[in-house]
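As a representative case, the lines below give one protein's residues and fold tokens.
***
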Amino acid sequence: MKLYTNRFLLLILLPVLSIGFLHAEKIEVAGYSFLSPEKWVSSTPTSKMRKAQFNVPGEDGRDAEVAFFHFGNGGAGGVQANVDRWMKQFEDAKDKTVKTTVIGETQVTYAQAHGTFLSGRSFGPKTPKENYALLAAIIEGKNGSIFIKMTGPKETVESQVSNLKKMVLDSLDK
């Protein structure tokens, strides 16, 4: 009877103990492996330009979106061009910060801003979204830059700064 009870407890407790690992997903982009933070939920990319995409749950259903892009060596116009383009997606970007660091031998640029985000395709109509934020990392990888861009409600995005930075660090710190 004791063996049966232990097996039963194991079957009941194992799923409960592993809940924190259910949403972590390993993805590969341009020769680098990323393990998503546990609450990020993988979704089908909405564009062929996206290599991966995640939904980041926020308070009261105010979710953020994370997209991974890679265009090969020299693709997408470089670090500054992308940072400039992203900042222009706000009516008036506030608290803009751009910081570059080196992890191992790889240069990484982080960008942040918040304000009224103009959501929509590059040349299409825009929908203003107030109190939105941007958090981005550009990894200047050996096979070209990897662009990781999170946009969404300011509170949701700001709650993910350490998670995004840890994910980037873990992917490069080998």
